């Protein structure tokens, strides 16, 4: 969760600078962690060819604990904006969201406060989580006037600018791959502060679980329609596409010799709301996941940790052979989900290019690492929430701060 310690931009006299390009603001590890959250939880976006993950969506789908990786980043970005634009007033975060700009996504010339319902926006921060050229083509950010006149996105870099028409900008069409960003808008108007809204969601969902119970971090899918990515008179389910691209498939949780229990679904996509297994090639993994989103999150966690896991395996076993295989070939049949492999490949296919040296034993280890990771975040969330609720704000609660009393202290 650590964010790289880039020095804050120098304070500027009002009007002196329109925008700042901060290089290396986020560490590669922070970029990867946010990418994991987005690829696990994103839904079809608010514009064509876009997938997005907003913080209220995380809180509403049983993933309130996944807000934690955002907390230090939001705080550092607010500090950077306040210092860059010499703000002698309170600044609130109006929106925080992860966005994938997929093939065909672009935005024409605009300023970020250009609609009556967007007038409250004062500043924008866009963090780039992956690299132009390597991960996607197109997607250059251009400004109409002033310097810098364009930004070529590099993972870890941030651009901050005023949301008014002195920063009219556009984003070129993404022609290949997936351009990942973390976008924040800041406001001076506390009525638009997103924190109280998030806290209200969190208190309705996360506070119900005490003590930490396993099911408290299992994701709960939103309505199926939110995962439908429409493209060119066709489309696909985002959960299926993300799982397929990494070589996995969804299987029934019911064993083949027990077919009589298998219920017939009107809409096969509804099967993703029920317990599922994961398969790869002819193998089906033993574990039953609570739903398709749970399975997807574990697959994305595995993908995030795969290089580390395979390096560890090679170190300990000298690279030879598999230890045990928690899989079988006769378990749950492949779910009859509608898919469009060609389109899934066109839209999400580019990021699997880091070839995974796949072993089921690594995957099994990733399942327990994911459980530990989620449990730790959930524990932190439950510790922080009372402090957040009493100040109606989301902030880093330092464990050494004297007012924090955690269990056992
Ligand atoms: O992603 C970017 O570089 C800028 C995005 C943008 O202009 C917007 O979301 O309003
Ligand atoms: Fe914009």
TrEMBL record:
Ranges in a coiled coil: none
Pfam families per the UniProt record, alphabetical: 2OG-FeII_Oxy_3
Entry protein name: procollagen-proline 3-dioxygenase
Cofactor(s) required, per the database record: L-ascorbate; Fe cation
EC number from the UniProt entry: 1.14.11.7
GO BP: collagen metabolic process
Catalytic class of the enzyme: oxidoreductase
């Amino acid at each position: 969760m650590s964010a790289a310690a880039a020095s804050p931009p120098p304070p500027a006299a009002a009007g002196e600078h329109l925008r700042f390009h901060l290089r290396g603001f986020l560490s590669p590890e922070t970029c990867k962690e946010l990418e994991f959250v987005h690829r696990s939880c994103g839904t079809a976006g608010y514009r064509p060819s876009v997938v997005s993950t907003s913080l209220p969506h995380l809180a509403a789908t049983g993933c309130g604990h996944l807000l934690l990786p955002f907390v230090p980043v939001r705080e550092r970005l607010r500090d950077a904006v306040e210092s860059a634009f010499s703000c002698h007033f309170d600044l609130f975060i109006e929106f925080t969201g992860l966005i994938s700009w997929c093939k065909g996504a672009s935005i024409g010339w605009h300023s970020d406060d250009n609609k009556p319902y967007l007038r409250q926006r004062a500043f924008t921060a866009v963090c780039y989580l992956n690299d132009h050229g390597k991960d996607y083509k197109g997607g250059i950010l251009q400004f109409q006037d002033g310097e810098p006149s364009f930004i070529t996105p590099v993972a870890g870099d941030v651009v901050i600018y005023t949301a008014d028409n002195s920063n009219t900008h556009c984003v070129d069409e993404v022609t290949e791959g997936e351009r990942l960003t973390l976008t924040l808008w800041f406001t001076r108007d506390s009525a638009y502060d997103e924190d109280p809204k998030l806290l209200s969601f969190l208190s309705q969902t996360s506070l119900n679980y005490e003590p930490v119970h396993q099911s408290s971090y299992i994701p709960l899918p939103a309505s199926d329609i939110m995962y439908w990515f429409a493209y060119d008179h066709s489309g696909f389910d985002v959960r299926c596409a993300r799982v397929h691209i990494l070589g996995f498939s969804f299987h029934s949780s019911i064993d083949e010799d027990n077919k009589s229990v298998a219920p017939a679904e009107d809409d096969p996509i509804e099967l993703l709301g029920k317990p599922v297994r994961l398969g790869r090639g002819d193998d089906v993994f033993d574990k039953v996941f609570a739903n398709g989103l749970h399975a997807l999150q574990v697959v994305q966690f595995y993908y995030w940790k795969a290089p580390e896991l395979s390096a560890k395996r090679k170190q300990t076993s000298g690279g030879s052979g598999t230890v045990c295989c928690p899989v079988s070939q006769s378990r749950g049949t492949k779910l009859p989900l509608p898919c469009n492999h060609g389109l899934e490949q066109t839209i999400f296919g580019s990021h699997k290019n880091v070839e995974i040296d796949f072993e089921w034993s690594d995957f099994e280890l990733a399942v327990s690492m994911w459980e530990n990771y989620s449990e730790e975040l959930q524990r932190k969330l439950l510790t922080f929430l009372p402090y957040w609720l009493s100040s109606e704000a989301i902030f880093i609660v330092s464990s050494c701060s004297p007012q924090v009393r955690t269990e056992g202290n």
